Amino acid sequence: MTHGRKRVGFSRPVSGLWYPLAFFLVLVLCSGSLTMAQEIEDCQECHVDPEKCGRMARIDRETGEVKVVNMLVDEDAFMQSAHGRSEEGFVCIDCHQDLDGVYGEHNALLEPVDCITFCHDDPAEEFLESTHVEHMEEEEKTPPKCTYCHMGRNSARETPVADDAFHRAQITRTCGECHEDYLYTYCTNLHGQLSSLGVRNTDVPNCYDCHGGHDVLKSDDPDSQVGENNKVETCGKCHEGAGENFVRHIAHPGFKTRSFYAETYKTFQEKGILEVLTDPQSYIALVFLMYMGIICQAFSLFGGHAFLMWIRMLLDERKGGDGHEH
Ligand code: HEC
Ligand code: HEC
Ligand code: HEC
Ligand code: HEC
Ligand code: HEC
Ligand code: HEC
Is 116's C-beta closer than 6 angstroms to any atom of ligand 3? Predict the structure, then answer.
């Protein structure tokens, strides 16, 4: 009873005020959420208008390089990108967080977009803590930034999806910047030839279809996608019925590259000649070297012979000339 009375007693004096108060509260909340719901249009008011935005010079904060950046945003290209097409419905401020709640004009220099902290900490960790990155650091190479491998055609904003032809070509180039010899040997093989001819779809493997993108391991690691244990599965993604014999195929015929000989020499020093002889490429290399030897020998004999003949001809000519003068 007391409880009921208290309730009645409490509601009576307030009821008159409650409705306008609630209305006011809802209004405040709504206007608050209206401010928060910053739409793409709020930014596109300027970023599609060549009168208001255009090409601007920017200094790269990390490299100090001056580059010209286009501030015009291609909304269609964004909508095709990994984020634009996502069901999450990304808006500009999801990534450009320092503009949250900022309407109209804003600072010319914004904080760089942070891909890692709130969204991609797992893939980032997988990459940044891989032995691959460890090895880059040992060789004093700076590991590439996320946007370097996931760059869109015109802007980092247009993060391409995994099967985007441009992305596939770009990753091959990126890997190749540090692994020139492996890019070269990839291109001498049927897979690479097809992709150099412009076949960039997922039917033809690029570096990451075989090696993986973030967690790249050396082929003698048991977990490597191209290691002995997993090769059949990796090649089998495309070559139905691939077996032990099929995967003996040499993905990087390196007998014309310096790194092959450097690595073979290292194996020889560390593990001995027997280990070198287990690599089928050693035989190809041997045949190649012998072939080159024969060619060199033939040319040096031929060249030497021609040189001696030439000297002799000169001498003969001199003799002959002397004869004429007499
Ligand atoms: C009133 C017009 C206007 C509006 C509205 C506007 N911008 Fe801009 N924005 C510009 C201009 C102009 C620049 C180039 C600034 C310069 O270089 O001086 C720019 C530059 C930028 C840059 C590059 C900053 C840098 O550090 O290089 C980003 C990112 C950006 N805007 C994002 C947004 C987002 C996201 C929104 C919506 C929340 C937005 N802008 C709304 C005019 C606008
Ligand atoms: C998925 C994250 C993401 C979204 C969503 C996004 N951007 Fe960006 N944006 C970036 C990244 C990354 C850069 C490259 C610069 C950096 O790293 O800070 C960038 C750069 C820019 C630039 C500088 C010019 C350039 O191409 O480098 C402008 C202007 C810009 N964005 C505007 C927008 C507008 C407008 C929207 C909404 C339509 C938007 N961005 C949505 C990630 C995003
Ligand atoms: C050396 C190139 C390279 C760098 C650097 C790189 N990635 Fe990747 N990443 C790849 C490749 C290759 C794939 C697989 C193909 C794809 O999904 O685009 C991939 C896939 C992804 C995916 C989708 C699949 C998944 O694992 O969820 C995300 C998200 C991603 N990367 C985020 C990042 C972030 C964040 C960084 C920065 C810490 C980063 N990447 C750095 C090459 C790279
Ligand atoms: C910034 C330079 C750099 C980039 C970009 C790069 N790598 Fe590497 N990578 C290295 C270095 C350094 C090593 C260790 C020494 C070596 O084997 O050359 C290495 C090692 C490797 C190894 C042997 C495994 C290991 O950990 O030693 C493979 C396989 C490999 N990289 C493939 C790739 C692929 C595939 C890509 C593209 C997704 C790529 N790399 C991009 C520098 C790079
Ligand atoms: C068809 C699958 C395939 C493709 C595509 C491929 N590789 Fe390989 N890669 C292999 C195999 C298998 C090995 C190990 C045996 C060897 O050296 O041939 C290897 C070895 C390597 C190595 C030596 C380190 C190790 O793990 O033994 C590097 C570095 C490498 N690849 C980089 C690349 C780069 C860069 C690309 C793209 C330009 C690429 N690979 C494309 C299958 C592939
Ligand atoms: C992403 C798919 C893909 C992957 C992964 C792949 N290949 Fe291929 N491979 C192809 C395509 C496409 C061709 C072109 C000819 C064809 O259609 O067979 C080809 C051709 C070949 C050929 C030439 C002979 C033939 O069948 O015409 C060999 C050998 C070969 N691949 C070996 C391998 C090996 C070994 C691996 C694993 C290390 C591998 N491939 C991984 C797609 C792939």
Answer: yes
